Amino acid sequence: MDSFETDYLVVGAGATGLAFADALLSTSDAHVTLVDRRDKPGGHWNDAYPFVRLHQPSSYYGVPSQSLGHARVDQCGLNKGFEELASGQEVAAYFHAVMRDRLLASGRVRFLPMTEHLGDGDVRQLLSNKTTRINVRRRLVDARVCENGIPLTHHRKFQVADGVACIPPNFLQHRAHEHGNFTILGAGKTAMDSVIWLLENGADPAQIRWVVPRDPWMINRAFSQPSAAFFHQNYGGTVRQMEALKEAASIDDLADRMESAGLWMRLDPAVRPGIMHGATVSLPELARLREVRDIIRMGHVETIEPDRLGLVDGSCRAKVDTLYVDCTARALGHTGTWPIFNDDRIALQMIRIYQPTFSAALLAKIETLSDSDKVKNALATPIPMTDTVQSWVVSQVAHAKNQFAWSQNPEIKSWIQTCRLDGFGRAARDVDRSDPEVQAVFARLKDMWVPAFANMQALAAA
Ligand SMILES: Cc1cc2nc3c(=O)[nH]c(=O)nc-3n(C[C@H](O)[C@H](O)[C@H](O)COP(=O)(O)OP(=O)(O)OC[C@H]3O[C@@H](n4cnc5c(N)ncnc54)[C@H](O)[C@@H]3O)c2cc1C
């Protein structure tokens, strides 16, 4: 078996593996090898449906050293007034350029595409079947922990009878005109995008049926804008979130307070949502989603027959001439966590809520500290992917612990202050700190931190 040496072997060249490698190059002299089963870097973005966009601003997504987009504010469309959101094609092209122009050009990175990691540094080239041993001098970095399930490649968990048209959203633009009715399966961001794509491309709301197994809480995008121009909106939202976390008497009460504060939104005011996956939408997008009136709430779909739809909690008649759009892939398959720094391994996970690339980059910086794994792990409590409001609170506790730990470490604090992926910090750094109204916001946040954290912990344990 052939072999070669490297300092870090990164398994998975998706967004997190690339962000880790990029930050490691900037903060060390290490040699890095990335392997991926795919033929290109960028992970799931290479197979994304054509109308996907980031749901958070581009300006704090990707790798630290290369900007994505121009932080322009959209002047039209459903994201009007907010910072630009890169399309899936733009994100994929960006990651290809990151690999070519930044990582490989450094002379310190080797990329093995179409190569599967078998375990312990052994890899198999998928075309030649040749295996190679990669001797890892420092650590193996598992960048698959946050691997995404997507409709194009996932394994469907329901049966589709012969003659029924059921497609992933990747083919919607080619197949939609062949049908008179559409049924969207699933209630995540992909399903929302598919509903909006149909409406924006001329479908009548009456042609659309939506199977929503559990209603989602959605985050209002107005509160995730990173520039100082949005300071009062953004940090005003953080103040209201802290108030909700401080005052809430129960999980439902917390969700209601988040909704009253305008931070969270739901499809139907009469239906209490059951999931919180962090889908982020604007008010105009929500208004479009609410145009769909035919919503089936009978749990997950199990069977699709030409004239009948079988669901966990019942069945209903299927409309004739329906195109089913499968949006049921679970974007993040896991909700558990593992120690991040563990002997000869690093298991990349989120350490800031809903910020996978910032997290991966910061983990590279933490790795370069000359400290023990115990100290490194104390700076990196893993944040599970959220499923319900309860798990959102658990994640908020871990998020708050990390924010506090970083604020106590001058090296980490200063790295974050210069990292372009720190979208939340940017608005606070660039704003005029001598403005009394700005000072009042910071004072309010400082006052609430301790009681909000205490109540958060109580809610998380309930
Ligand atoms: C539709 C959509 C929109 C999103 N929008 C945003 C957003 O706006 N902002 C945001 O922060 N996040 C967003 N996300 C989250 C996004 O998924 C993550 O930011 C990120 O792309 C996940 O990257 P990853 O590297 O963890 O996983 P992946 O992209 O899944 O990459 C993992 C890679 O590991 C490889 N691999 C797995 N096993 C092996 C093996 N044994 N050997 C070799 N290679 C292997 C796979 O081939 C894959 O390429 C979005 C996600 C989706 C699905």
Instruction: Report the count of strand segments.
Output: 20
Low-confidence stretches: none
Shape: globular
End-to-end C-alpha gap = 54 Å
For the sheet with most strands, the description reads: 8 strands, mixed
Give me the number of helical elements: 13
CATH class division of the largest domain? Alpha Beta
* Count of individual domains: 3
Radius of gyration, taken over Cα atoms and rounded to an integer in Å: 23 Å
CATH fold description of the largest domain: Rossmann fold
Task: Assign a percent range to the helix content.
Answer: 25-40%
The average pLDDT score comes to 95
CATH superfamily of the largest domain: NAD(P)-binding Rossmann-like Domain
Commentary on this structure:
It contains 13 helices and 20 strands. With 462 residues, it is of the alpha/beta class. The chain has 3 domains: 229 residues, 3-Layer(aba) Sandwich (Rossmann fold), CATH 3.40.50; 103 residues, 3-Layer(bba) Sandwich (FAD/NAD(P)-binding domain); 79 residues, no CATH class. Strand 9, helix 4 and strand 10 form a beta-alpha-beta unit. It starts with a strand and ends with a helix. Flavin-adenine dinucleotide binds next to helix 1, strand 4, helix 4 and helix 8.
